Amino acid sequence: MCQLHQWHWISLARDLFGLSRFRLGAAPSQPVAVKDVATGQRATLEAGDVPAAQARSANAALRVVYASQTGFAEQLARQTSQSLQLAGLPTRVIGIDEVALDDLREAGRVLFVVSTTGDGEPPDMALAFTRQLMRQPASLTGLHYGLLALGDSDYEDFCGFGRQLHRWLQASGAHALFDPVEVDSEDDASQRRWQHHLAVLGGAPDLPDWQPPKYRRWQLVERRLLNPGSVGEPCFHLALKPLEGHADWQAGDLAEIGPRHAAEAVATWLAARGLDGRVVVPFGYRERLPLATLLARCRLPEPDEIEDLDEEGVAAMLQLLPHRAYSIASLPQDGTLQLIVRRMRARGGYPGLGSGWLTEHAPIGAEIALRVRSNVNFHVPGDARPLVLIGNGTGLAALRALLKQRIAAGRTRNWLLFGERHRAHDFLHREDIERWIAEGAIARADFAWSRDQGERIHVQQRLREAGDELRHWVDEGAAIYVCGSLDGLAPGVDAVLCEVLGAARVAQLREQGRYRRDVY
User: Fold this and answer.
1) pTM, whole model, 2 decimals?
2) Using only C-alpha atoms, what is the Rg of the chain?
3) pLDDT tens digit sequence for 46-102
4) Which residues contact residue 46 at a Cβ distance below 8 angstroms, ignoring those fewer than 6 apart?
5) Residue range 205-215: average pLDDT?
6) What secondary structure letter does DSSP report for 250?
7) Backbone angles phi, psi at 110, to 5 degrees
8) E strands along 259-399, which residues?
């Protein structure tokens, strides 16, 4: 039997048994800041957010409630708890058969991870909860919840129990922390969307992925500043091409990026610890590469984590950086995968991990680790119904792709509502939008430039002003798509929709799939 280096065993044990140690703070810490709602950005984790601050202000442990038939929901609930604890949030995992109504009233915040058995039935352990608590709405106005629903689309009532639970919570006055996440047969993309929400809730953008994306090799071929002269952070149009094979996606899909540290940051880290980045080290089962190359794609350990370790010892302790997700702004027939990315800044002026790599550190021609993730919930309707598209900031990326697909299909009943800071500097992809308006491909457009006047004007105000027209479009069968900031745009638009259309009709639109959101 060959003798392995001692650190090979450590690496193998880590791969077999999962995360053994993890500390936040290796990357520059992120400030908690309230954003201008006119400047939504998908990778908002890089700048902190309000939900994280709200979460930390609560003293009680966050409950993670599972309803499991085969054990998978319980497994995900415990992984959920572990991720939140790594972010510094105390949690308590409990089965739904142990939950009473008073528990929900007193909890403040609950994350539900529930499966469906048979054709839309609750798991056995949830039968008593369903019969005794869900027979009628309760008074849960103080409850904020998140929901991960597991199901199988081969059955007609997909995620039946999860959807039933969501409707009951809504009818009981509970408040959703984010839109429910539905998982089809252990779909890893949906699970990563859940992990994104956990990272937002915990204010910890560097939580490790439960299952790293299987990236492909892409090349950055274009980077162009979209908002010269803006008072906000620079926003870029990026274009990428696959280096191998053919890539396909639909409007509404996402690009998951494997971020990299700047070469200068890695060199500084190595020099401070007296390590040689040229030493070839093992990583995983088969890969061998220079330590500096490996460090660029991994969390940089704190000094006390690697004390007295050599290059191979350091390599054995490394954990891959978590992915960053961005809405795709183009179609395959455009020839490139295009993104709209705002360079975020962390405390001390450091660029955000994902946005800094894409907009500053990666040179044109650089290889980018990228995986396309299907986002079925935000795909364009298959028919010619009218479409109301509402967004702000970099949320325009997904809306631009949706418009492109609609226009290519000859469907022009499109209404765009978009907000940013200044028309003169922040009108992202202005040429495209003005051309589509002139050609009649956009039937109506309303803009909210928040800082072009003394009073701050936002998209939801433009929507309220057009309330009569909104009702008319909805009566004609329109679907409403919202993409942008979770903290400002999403609740603002939702409130106006309920005000103009009524809460019951908004709930009906959700159930019919005519009100869809991709907010972050």
Assistant:
1) 0.76
2) 24
3) 433 334 444 443 446 899 999 988 788 998 999 999 999 988 899 999 999 999 999
4) 30, 205, 344, 346, 352, 353, 354, 355
5) 79
6) -
7) -140, 135
8) 280-283, 287-290, 324-327, 337-342, 367-373, 387-392
